[in-house]
Specification:
single chain, 529 residues, alpha/beta, seven-stranded mixed beta sheet, Cholesterol Oxidase, domain 2, eight-stranded antiparallel beta sheet
Length: 529
């Protein structure tokens, strides 16, 4: 049996930040447990290889059948291995809107207003543009401009501008609304995961112990306190002890799953799966929120776009050689190169729709291979009203959980998505993008609400931002306090996207890292006390 001051379960975006920061004190021993591998494969490091990542970098989750998606099961990819989803995502550096965090504070999450979280965003960030009032210039997480932007991505931004939709060179600055080219979590032309930012540079620390290939079976609870974890590693079961605290950072699916496997959650549900109830906590696994997203896809004759053809294959082969030699060129693409934030309602407190423009045809999350050249564009609802849950499918730690985002079950969500898609098509019909003379792969009468809604229910799915399933809040019924301490058990903290009481208006990787930074500070203070 091994013993540490702090055990962090999950080496993803938040977990890497927690472990890296806590291990800065050489007197504190930190153990970071990760179920997957090291994720140091060249395909992970090469941005343009995102559609061709090793299979073992992804948990490949699925939802239960979704009523709002006409009974379809949604695809839910989640990062597996060091860096978590920052090892498989599109690398976009987006924090959400300042209103999101002020709203958290208004909901009772004290010290989570924008002015409270901004210093942590800045502390984590090393923006190649340098530090300023909104950005950090010397943090561990590298944030870069794109230097090989596709002409079609530029055309998308220009077409939006011609519709009087403002340009925005910094979505994380003074305002979020507008259109532009995204910044990415890359460095020197390579993907810069949370693990590369917080763990890889400090692997030599004697007080930092990183265990990969370690599946967490359950938390150990003794006399109302979490004192360790039980893991499977190398075909053996091991128990690790924590003198100070355990930090659960397994993500919006993994964290509630581990809690319920440990007997912490809705008592009736746990008994159904023959799990002894340690703590009846109905809110564990509730409040799941995700950005519902529709992808439009178009074919063109232009070879500007990335595509499957003899010309395209030769172009990509040359690009791969260029990237291996110089880390430049097309293979630095995040694919979701351009985009923007837009509101359908003039009185909305923050943008309601986010767009991601991809200079390639995308079908079924990239799992369907499409011949030819073209482009795609995502439209997602930023603050959906639909809320779902994460529950057990069985009491086996290796089985995936039952994931129910309840997509489009609230009619307000499909109304917003409908408006966002119509606005997206207005951009497509505006020059210079319209000059590509594209053919819609999924045409529909945009003026027919019923026909449009049917297509949205048949083709929409996640844009990979699940949050909220172990939410913090001011009440005893909430899973966590605003200091990320578990309500009802001592010695347990949670740091990942599951802690968000409401989903943020944008991509969730940067906010998850910020949450990890904050949790490390809370723990430092609590352990000293």
């Amino acid at each position: 049996m091994q013993e540490f001051d702090v055990i962090v379960v999950g080496g993803g975006s938040a977990g890497s930040a927690v472990a890296g920061r806590l291990s800065e004190d050489p007197a504190r021993s930190v153990c970071l447990i990760e179920a997957g591998g090291t994720n140091d494969d060249w395909r992970v490091k090469t941005p343009g290889m995102m559609p061709f990542l090793p299979d073992n970098t992804n948990w490949h989750y699925s939802t239960i059948p979704q009523k709002g998606l006409n009974g379809r099961m949604g695809h839910q990819p989640r990062g597996r291995g060091m860096g978590g989803s920052s090892a498989i995502n599109a690398m976009l550096y987006i924090r959400g809107n300042s209103w999101d965090y002020d709203n958290w504070a208004a909901m009772g999450c004290t010290d989570w207003a924008y002015e409270d979280v901004l210093p942590y965003f800045k502390r984590s960030e090393s923006n190649e543009r340098g530090g300023d009032a909104f950005h950090g210039g010397d943090g561990p997480l590298s944030v870069s401009d794109q230097h090989s932007v596709n002409p079609g991505s530029k055309a998308f931004v220009e077409s939006a501008a011609r519709l009087q939709m403002p340009l925005n060179e910094d979505f994380n600055g003074a305002r979020q609304a507008g259109f532009g080219i995204y910044q990415t979590t890359t460095k020197g032309g390579e993907r810069w995961t949370a693990s590369r930012a917080y763990i890889d540079p400090v692997r030599s620390r004697e007080n930092l112990h990183v265990l990969t290939g370690a599946l967490t079976e359950k938390l150990i609870v003794e006399n109302g306190r979490v004192t360790g974890v039980r893991i499977q590693r190398g075909g053996e079961t091991q128990t690790l002890r924590a003198r100070g605290a355990v930090v659960l950072s397994a993500g919006a699916f993994g964290s509630p799953h581990i809690l319920q496997l440990s007997g912490i959650g809705p008592a009736e549900h746990l008994r159904y799966h023959s799990i002894d109830v340690v703590l009846d906590k109905p809110s564990v696994g509730e409040n799941l929120q995700d950005h519902i997203d529709y992808v439009a896809s178009f074919e063109t004759r232009s070879r500007d776009f990335i595509g499957d053809s003899l010309t395209g294959t030769l172009k990509m082969a040359r690009a791969m050689v260029e990237h291996r030699l110089r880390r430049t060129g097309i293979m630095t693409t995040p694919y979701a190169e351009a985009g923007g934030f837009w509101s359908a309602d003039s009185d909305a407190p923050a943008p309601q729709i986010q767009y991601h423009f991809v200079p390639a045809m995308l079908e079924d999350h990239g799992r369907e291979k499409v011949k030819g050249h073209g482009f795609s564009c995502h439209a997602c609802v930023l603050r959906p009203e639909s809320k779902g849950s994460v529950r057990l499918k069985s009491n086996e730690p290796g089985d995936m959980p039952a994931i129910d985002p309840a997509f489009l079950e609230d009619d307000r969500d499909i109304a917003l998505l409908r408006a966002g898609v119509r606005q997206m098509y207005r951009i497509f019909e505006t020059t210079p993008l319209a000059e590509y003379q594209m053919r819609d792969r999924h045409p529909v009468d945009l003026d027919d609400d019923d026909a449009l809604d049917e297509m949205l229910r048949n083709r929409s799915d996640t844009v990979y931002h699940p949050v909220g399933s172990c939410a913090m809040g001011p009440d005893d019924t909430d899973v966590l306090t605003p200091r990320l301490k578990f309500r009802g058990l001592e010695g347990l903290y949670i740091a990942d996207a599951s802690v968000m009481p409401k989903i943020v208006s944008g991509n969730t990787n940067a906010p998850s890292i910020m949450i990890g930074e904050r949790c490390a500070d809370f723990l430092r203070e609590d352990l000293r006390g």
